[in-house]
Amino acid sequence: MSFVDLHTHLPSASAPEWASWRQSGVLAEMDRFGIARAAVMTLDGLGYDAVSGNDVVAQVCAGSDGRLLPFGSVDPRRPDAADELRRCADRGFHAIKLHPWMQGFSPLETYMDPVAEAAIERGLPLVLHDGTPPYASPLQIARLAARFPELTVVLAHGGLFDLWEDAVAAALRYPNVHITMCGTAPRAVFREISRRVPAAKLTLGTDGGFGDPDLRRHRLSVHRAILAELPDDDAAALAHRNAERLLGLT
Amino acid sequence: MTTDAHVAAGEHPSLPTLGVDDLLRALDGGGVDRAVLGPVGRWLAVDNEDGNRTLASWCDAHPDRLAHWATVNPWYGDRAVAELRRAFAAGARGLKLAPSVQGFGLLSPLLEPVLDVAEEHGRPVYVVTGVPVASEPLQLAELALRRPGVTFVMGRSGRTDFSLDLMPALSTGPNLVAETAYNGASLIAGMVAALGADRVLFSSDVPFNDLAPELERVDRAGLAGPDRAAVLGGTAATLLGVAA
C-alpha cells in the first residue's frame, strides 16, 4: 500500500533536527515507510511569521519530484492574509495549514472571510488543527465550512481524544468537512471514525517531524492496522486516493 | 514479568471494550503477565460500586494476572467514601478519577474526603489528565503539592495538547508518577532520566489503545536493564502491590 502522509512538519529552526534536516534523508525515510508523497507544513511559520515560514517550505520541497507537497500558512489576522494565500497558490502550494491556538485566532471571526474566499478562488483546501479548545474545536471549524460551502476544510486531527465525536458530527453534517486521521488518540477512536464517516472523507497523517522522532513509524503501524480491517477500495481511498483528489494530484 | 498499569474495562458508550476472557487473551498476545484494570464508561461515571465489584470478581478469578483500580464519583459524598473503603478492603489497589467524566475540577474541595481515604490506606490515585478546564497536568501538580501524602499517577500524560506542561508538572514533586501510554520512546527515556524509573509506570490503555506498539516504544527508549525492569513491572509492584 502506497501512502500519502497528509500531516508532517518541518522542525523548528531552533531545534537540532533542523540542522540535520536533508531532503534526501526525508525522501529515504519515506521510501522505508512506503510513503509516496507527504505534506510539508511549517512549525515556525505558525508561531512566528507565516510568510517566511512559507519561503522555507517552498525551498525544502523544491526538487523533490513532487514527493514533498508544500502546504503554506497565513496569519488570518493580517490584512494581507488573502494575498499571502494567493502567493502560496501561485508558487504551487497544495493547501493552507492553520492552527488556531498557535496562531491566536478563532475560525469564527470575520477576518477569516477573505482567507476563505481566496482559498475557494484558488482551489486550496484549508487544513486546520483541531481537537483542542478553546478555538480549535471541530464544530467551530465546521461553521467556517458551513458559511463557505465551496471551501474544502480538513480537520487535521479528527478531534483527538476528547472531541472526536464532534469531528464525526462535523464530517457527517457538512459535505465540505474532511478528516485526517492523525494524532495521539488510540486506534479504537480512529477505528470508530472510519466506521462512522464515509471513506471518501478520510485521509491519513503522521505528524512526523513534530516531537518524538519515532512518531511516524508508530503512527503508520496504527494506520496499517486500521486499513487492514477495511475493504481494499476503502483502504486505498484512505491511504492515498482521497489525498490525491483533495490536493488535485495526478 | 511485565505489568500493564492501566487497562480499560467497562461499558463505554462510544468505544468497544472487552470482557475478562478477551482481555486476558489480549494480554497473552502482547506478552503481558499482569494488568491493573481501570473502570471506564458507566462504571466510571455513575455505577461505581457495580464496576468495582465486577472488576474485583475478575481479579479474584485471576489473582495471578489481574488487579484493579477502584473508582468513586466524589459527588456521591459519604457514599463515595464508604464505597472506596469497601473497595480497598476488597482488594482494589488504588483510586481512579476522571474529572471530565465524573464532573469536577481537580482542585475542588469535593475531592478531599476521597483523597483522605486514599491517604489513610496508602493507595495511589490515578487521574486521567489532558482535558482542559477539568484535568490539566498542572492542576494535578498543584493537587500533589497540596496533598504530599498521596501519590498521583498522571494518567494519559495530559494528551492532547499539554505536552509542554507534562514535564514541568511531573517534576513538581516526588508524589507524581508518569505513565508511558501515548508517549514516544524519546519522552519515555526523558521521563526516566528526569524522574527516575521508580516514578514511571508502563501502561497501554488497552483495549482502546494497542499493546504491542506501546511495548515497542518502551523497548525503543533504550533504557538500562534495571530501569526497563522497573518501568515494566517493578514500579507497579512497589506502587500498586502487584507482584513483579
How is this fold's topology laid out?
The complex is a heterodimer of chains A (250) and B (244).
Chain A (H helix, E strand, L loop, with lengths): L2 E3 L10 H4 L3 H11 L1 E6 L3 H4 L2 H12 L6 E5 L8 H10 L4 E4 L1 H4 L8 H11 L3 E3 L9 H10 L5 E3 L8 H10 L3 E5 L5 H10 L5 E3 L10 H13 L4 H16 L3
Parallel strand pairs in A: 1-2, 2-3, 3-4, 4-5, 5-6, 6-7, 7-8
Helix pairs in contact in A: 5-7, 10-11
Chain B lengths: L2 E9 L8 H11 L3 E7 H5 L2 H14 L4 E6 L6 H12 L4 E4 L1 H4 L9 H10 L3 E4 L8 H10 L5 E4 L7 H8 L5 E4 L5 H11 L4 E2 L9 H10 L4 H16 L4
Helix pairs in contact in B: 4-6, 7-8, 9-10
Roughly what is the average pLDDT of chain A, rounded to an integer? 96
Helix content of chain A: 40-55%
What is the domain tally of chain A? 1
Could you say what the CATH architecture of chain B is? Alpha-Beta Barrel
CATH class of chain A: Alpha Beta
Shape of chain A: globular
**What's the oligomerization state?**
heterodimer
Helical/strand content category of chain B? alpha/beta
Query: Which pair of chains forms the biggest interface, and how many residues does each contribute?
Result: A-B, 27 and 27 residues
The H-level CATH homologous superfamily of chain B, spelled out, is: Metal-dependent hydrolases
- Uncertain residue segments of chain A: none
Name the beta content range of chain A: 5-15%
The biggest sheet of chain A, with number of strands, parallel, antiparallel or mixed sense and barrel status, is: 8 strands, parallel
The radius of gyration of chain A is: 16 Å
The number of helices of chain A is: 12
Largest sheet of chain B: 8 strands, parallel
CATH architecture of chain A: Alpha-Beta Barrel
Query: How would the global form of chain B be characterised?
Result: globular
What class do helices, strands and sheet pairing of chain A give? Answer: alpha/beta
